[in-house]
Q: What sequence folds into this?
């Protein structure tokens, strides 16, 4: 499903130079922190120099990145990133396998469910776009497996599932704040629905309460250390709130759940011609008709199952996830749906048409921190978490009616159908080799007595510049600030955007910048640009393949 990445682990990444190379850099930073004993995992003093960069302004993804650190040390940071990414597939499939095997006592049903979950188009899409944080879906089966067992246990302390649910919640917290926030919301829905369908029997047991409290206590240290940086940033006003109009752009369409993924080897291009799939990197929620069929069977046969409460609860979560994934207002084909208000109601609404607002709009205005989420459609992920569970239960119910000598053939047929529906094709044309620039090697050979800046300054927030810092080994005034901008960046950006002039040069001296790297290709009349820079007191040091380095003449 990820071929041929395994042949290029040390040199190549899937996709272009985007978020993937930020996570390559992040794994290299964690290597420096945890294996070389330098620095703090969530604060880098060499980025956004001299203020430093709180990595919580983006995603720290510690639980997903950490497995790649030993491989980074042995084989290099690109290999560390690639292996960390591949590990998410292995663990996602395996942990879903464990949950469904526990439910069905069927290894074949568990294997089918694990395959559906591990290779969902959602997972594949974030793999392609390099979102190591959002690929970290492996902890969810453990958490909801443990939670569902604790909700049923009324007779004893169950340390296995206390630890499982508590630790996995902590790992979700150290994977993505998006995931932790959404998990908190869906845990509430899950608990209420499960208790309702089990007629609230558990509430009368002291062990029910003790188990849940102990699981929460175990998760608290993880929650505290993962949340503290984000809470501090929010209090400082650094975590940006989004406008409702902006959040609305990242709303899924109903078709996103039922049409094959854009990168499907056979159907992807066909459906992309008839539907706007420009947000495929976020909106790849295809369930798969094989999984859908198996899940429907589980629902139909729920009365014959020992897991009726879980089946019904899964339906509730799927419905809520689907609705919230549709975002602020209803979209179709990536366009807002407008309702023409009947004439007799127009005086009441004082307009002739309106958008069709959904429950996420109310949450956006009323639930704390909801308006800080950039991509509301990610709430749709929980559809893809619970469908494999239902599919595994449904598969086991069918399998019991298949003659024993045909069960392996039947299982293989279902597996091949699932993989066929999700198969993206070979990635041989999507491999990229991130390479440092010649100027980065030149900078690495220079004395460590000053920072560098990239001009035009707008380039300083590109992920590639973060990656290049691995090689140039110089403090850098920029960083990956697309989501939330640090205070220093907000203050210096308007000034450095005007470079070269007196105010920008004065600011660069204040920031202890020695090496001013200019991308000459970004300027129509570079000769005029250079003449002005030199007249203001700069001197050229070198030209490295169009990246021209200046410093202050008095230095």
A:
């Amino acid at each position: 499903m990820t071929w041929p990445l395994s042949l290029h682990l040390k040199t190549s990444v899937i996709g272009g130079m985007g978020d993937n190379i930020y996570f390559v850099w992040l794994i290299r930073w964690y290597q420096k922190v945890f294996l070389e004993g330098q620095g703090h995992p969530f604060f880098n003093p060499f980025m956004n120099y001299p203020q430093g960069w709180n990595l919580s302004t983006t995603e720290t993804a510690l639980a997903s990145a950490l497995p790649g650190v030993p491989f980074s040390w042995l084989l290099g940071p690109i290999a560390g990133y690639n292996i960390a990414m591949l590990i998410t597939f292995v663990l996602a499939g395996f942990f879903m396998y464990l949950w469904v095997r526990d439910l069905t006592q069927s290894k074949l049903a568990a294997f089918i469910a694990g395959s559906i979950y591990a290779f969902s188009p959602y997972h594949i899409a974030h793999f392609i776009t390099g979102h190591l944080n959002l690929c970290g879906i492996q902890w969810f089966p453990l958490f909801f497996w443990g939670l569902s067992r604790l909700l049923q246990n009324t007779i004893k302390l169950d340390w296995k599932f206390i630890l499982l649910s508590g630790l996995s919640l902590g790992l979700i917290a150290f994977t993505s704040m998006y995931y932790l926030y959404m998990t908190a919301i869906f845990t509430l829905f899950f608990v209420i629905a499960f208790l309702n369908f089990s007629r609230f029997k558990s509430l009368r047991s002291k062990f029910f309460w003790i188990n849940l409290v102990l699981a929460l206590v175990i998760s608290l240290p993880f929650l505290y250390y993962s949340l503290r940086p984000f809470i501090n940033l929010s209090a400082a006003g650094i975590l940006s709130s989004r406008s409702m109009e902006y959040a609305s752009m990242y709303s899924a369409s109903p078709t996103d759940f039922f049409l094959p993924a854009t990168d499907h080897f056979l159907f992807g291009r066909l459906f992309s011609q008839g539907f706007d799939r420009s947000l495929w990197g976020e909106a790849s929620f295809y369930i798969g008709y094989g999984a859908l069929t198996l899940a429907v069977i589980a629902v139909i046969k729920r009365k014959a199952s020992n897991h009726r409460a879980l089946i019904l609860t899964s339906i509730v979560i799927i419905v809520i996830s689907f609705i919230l994934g549709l975002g602020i207002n209803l979209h179709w084909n990536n366009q807002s749906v407008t309702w023409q208000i009947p004439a007799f109601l127009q005086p009441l609404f004082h307009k002739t048409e309106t958008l069709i607002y959904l429950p996420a709009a109310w949450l956006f205005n009323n639930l704390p921190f909801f308006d800080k989420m950039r991509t509301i459609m990610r709430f749709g992920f929980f559809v893809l978490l619970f469908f494999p569970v239902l599919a595994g239960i449904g598969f086991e119910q069918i399998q019991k009616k298949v003659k024993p000598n045909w069960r392996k053939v039947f299982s293989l047929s279902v597996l091949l159908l699932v993989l066929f529906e999700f198969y993206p094709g070979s990635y041989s044309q999507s491999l990229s080799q991130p390479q440092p620039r010649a100027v980065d090697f030149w900078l690495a050979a220079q004395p460590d007595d000053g920072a560098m800046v990239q001009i035009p300054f707008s380039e300083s927030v590109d992920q590639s510049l973060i990656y290049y810092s691995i090689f140039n080994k110089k403090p850098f005034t920029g960083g990956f600030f697309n989501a939330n901008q640090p205070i220093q960046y907000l203050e210096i950006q308007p000034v450095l955007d005007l470079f070269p002039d007196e105010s920008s040069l004065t600011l660069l001296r204040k920031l202890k910048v020695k090496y001013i790297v200019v991308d000459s290709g970004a300027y129509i009349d570079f000769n005029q640009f250079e003449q002005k820079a030199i007249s203001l007191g700069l001197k050229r040091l070198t030209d490295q393949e169009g990246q021209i380095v200046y410093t202050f003449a008095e230095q």
The CA atoms of residues 12 and 433 lie 4 Å apart. The mean pLDDT is 93.
